[in-house]
Amino acid sequence: MPTTEREPGARDGPSPRDLDCAYFDAWRCRSCTLLDTPYARQLADKQGGVADALPAMRWHAPFASAPGGFRNKAKMAVAGTLERPTIGILAADGTGIDLQACPLHERPIVEAMPVLEDFVRTARLTPYDVPSRRGELKHLIVTASPDGELALRLVLRSSEALPRVAKHLPALADALPLASASVNLLPEHKAVLEGEHETVLLGGTLTMRVNEVPLRLKPRSFFQTNTAVAAGLYRQATAWIDAADPSRVLDLYCGVGGFALHAARPGRAVAGVEVAADAIDAARETAAEIGAGASFAVGDAGSVDLEGAQAPELVVVNPPRRGIGALAARLDASAAERVLYSSCNPVSLARDLAAMPHLRPVQGRLFDMFPHTGHAEVLVELERR
Ligand SMILES: C[S@@+](CC[C@H](N)C(=O)[O-])C[C@H]1O[C@@H](n2cnc3c(N)ncnc32)[C@H](O)[C@@H]1O
C-alpha cells in the first residue's frame, strides 16, 4: 500500500523493524522511508540494486551499519518561539517539528539537544520564522566525534545575536563536551543549510579518530556521515590499495584526507587534491601529526595533471553526487593502472564507468552509510584492460 494512503499512527501489525521511532509512528517525520522494512531486507535489496545496475564485477558482501545511533551529524532547523523553540525539521507550511530525540543520531548529539534548547532561550536566539521571514536562529548543526566531543554550528540570519552567543558560550561549554563552536551567517531567505561566512568562537577543529587516524574536521568541511561505516570504507580501500601496492597514489576530492592518510606508507608517494582550502589545511595538519608521507593541494580535481614522470599509478576518486564528469575521459586515457571509485550515487557512477572503457570494474562493495533510505554508497575497483 502506498505510504500516502496510510492513516496517521497506523502500523502494519507487529513490525519486525530494527529501529523504533516515535516520530515516524506519529507521522511527524517520514524521512526514513524504509523504516518499516527489516534492516537485513533493506541491505539485501540495496545490494541487489547496485549489483543489477553495475554488473560484470565481483560484489563482496555488503558492509552493514548499526540500525540506529549511527549519524555523526545533526542538521536541525529551528522554529517555534523563543519560549518554546522546536529543533528538528520544517513542515511544508514552514512551521517547526521537534525531533530532538531522532534515533538516527549518535547518543552525545541526542543528549545535547535539551541543553541546546535551553541555550536558545538563555542567549535569546529568536528562532527564524520562515513564513514571516522574521527571527535570527535558522539551524543548529551538531557533529559528534568518536571520542564523544561535539562541534556546534549556529546558523544565524545576521550578526545581531553574535555578542549574546559569545557571552553565554562559556556556560554552554561547561555543560557540553564542545571542541568547537562557530556561527555561520545566512542572511538570504533561501532553502539552503548555511551561508559563506563563518566565525569561530571556540576551538575550530573536531578530531574524528577513524581507525586510529586523527582526521580533523573544520566547521565547513565535508565528513562522511556514518563514522563506523566510513571506517570500514577506508579500511577496504586501503586493503585494495595495499594489494596492488602502487608507489604513487592520488586521492582526488580528498576532503580532510581520509583515503590518502589511510593509504600512506613508507616508500609510497601519496597526494590529495580538494577544492576546499580548510579541508586541505586539516589534511596537512593530520599528516604532520602522524608523520605520514602525504602531500595535499587545493585544486580542481578535473584539471589535475595525470601525466609525466610523477603520474599516479592508482587514483582514488570520491566525488560529490554529480560524479566526475569530464575527468572520466582523462582517467581513461591516463597511465593510471587502477582507479578506486567511491560513490554515493550509483546513477552517476554507472555513467562515469561507461565513460572509462579502458578501465574494467573488477570488484565492488556496498557500504550502507544511510540505513532506512534508498541511498547507496559503493566502492568499486577498476583495473586497466
Ligand atoms: C564526497 S566528498 C569526499 C571527501 C573525502 N574523500 C572523504 O572521504 O571525506 C566530496 C569532496 O569533493 C570536494 N569537491 C567538490 N568539487 C570538487 C572539485 N571540482 N575538485 C576537487 N574537490 C571537489 C568537496 O569539497 C568534498 O570535500
TrEMBL record:
Pfam families, per database record: Methyltransf_25, tRNA_U5-meth_tr
Highest taxon, organism lineage: Bacteria
Sequence ranges assigned to domain Methyltransferase in this UniProt record: 249-309
Binding residues annotated for S-adenosyl-L-methionine, in chain numbering: 224, 253, 274, 318
GO biological process, one term: rRNA base methylation
Keywords for this protein: Methyltransferase, S-adenosyl-L-methionine, Transferase
Single GO MF annotation: rRNA (uridine-C5-)-methyltransferase activity
Alphabetized InterPro entries for the sequence: Methyltransf_25, MeTrfase_TrmA_AS, SAM-dependent_MTases_sf, U5_MeTrfase_fam
Catalytic residues in the record: 344 (nucleophile), 344
Membership in a protein family: Belongs to the class I-like SAM-binding methyltransferase superfamily. RNA M5U methyltransferase family.
The protein's name: 23S rRNA m(5)U-747 methyltransferase
